[in-house]
Amino acid sequence: MSKRILVMFPNREYKESLLHEIMLKSGTIFNTINTEVTPTHTKIMGEIKGDEEKAGEFMRILKRRGGIVRELDVMMKFDQAKCVSCGMCVSLCPTKAILYNKDFSVKFDFNECILCMRCVENCPVNAVSYLGD
């Protein structure tokens, strides 16, 4: 089982070893997908690998340590009807979440998306949109 989350820490509460400590305590694996650090906070998107009980424990410990945790569902919308298969999004996607099918139509794998927003910002026909926050 895997669960995608977004966790935000005020910088005074976050240290680099924190996630490693929580993985050891909860018996899970956490794969960091994206990290954003500003002067006031650290925001980490990642995927918890483990059973439901261990994933829940991982999130509870994050909260006790000062993190604001949000489970992520599908955050992007791809409108195939609007898409003109220009390839702009395919060429810009750093994780290959957007690829061509054999018939040169575009397919979007939301599980690989790291929310870099390159596709949203550059799609000439607005076929990709962000649903989050």
From TrEMBL:
One of its GO terms (molecular function) is metal ion binding. Residues 74-103, 104-133 form the 4Fe-4S ferredoxin-type domain. InterPro entries: 4Fe4S_Fe-S-bd, 4Fe4S_Fe_S_CS, Fe-S_Ferredoxin. SUPFAM superfamilies: 4Fe-4S ferredoxins. PANTHER family: ADENYLYLSULFATE REDUCTASE, BETA SUBUNIT, L-ASPARTATE SEMIALDEHYDE SULFURTRANSFERASE IRON-SULFUR SUBUNIT. Gene3D superfamilies: 3.30.70.20. It comes from Fermentimicrarchaeum limneticum. Keywords: 4Fe-4S, Electron transport, Iron, Iron-sulfur, Metal-binding, Repeat, Transport. It holds the Pfam family Fer4_21. This is 4Fe-4S ferredoxin-type domain-containing protein. Signal peptide: none annotated.
